[in-house]
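Model it.
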Amino acid sequence: MIAHFRVTPRSTKEAIDGLAQTADGQAFQARLRAVPEDGAANRALEALVARWLDVPKRTVTLSTGGKSRLKSVRIDGDPDLLGAKLQSHVEAFSNDRIIEEE
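Modeled.
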């Protein structure tokens, strides 16, 4: 399964806290403490997504967007279970929490 994220590095907190509207459609808004150097933010995103979805860290890998704020993450596992987890997170974010891309 592929999930899309808009990343804000150098944040004061580490969280996935809403949906962002991007030029490519909606993406989860991820805030990371890591800096975007030497892949640190990419590794932090992988770890955050694994915790957020309660899956093993080894099942989450960056698919595209290594040097971009917009990233695609591949999550290996049961697609039905992962889809249900992602859908529950989408439903938890109310429509008024959609963040416009800067």
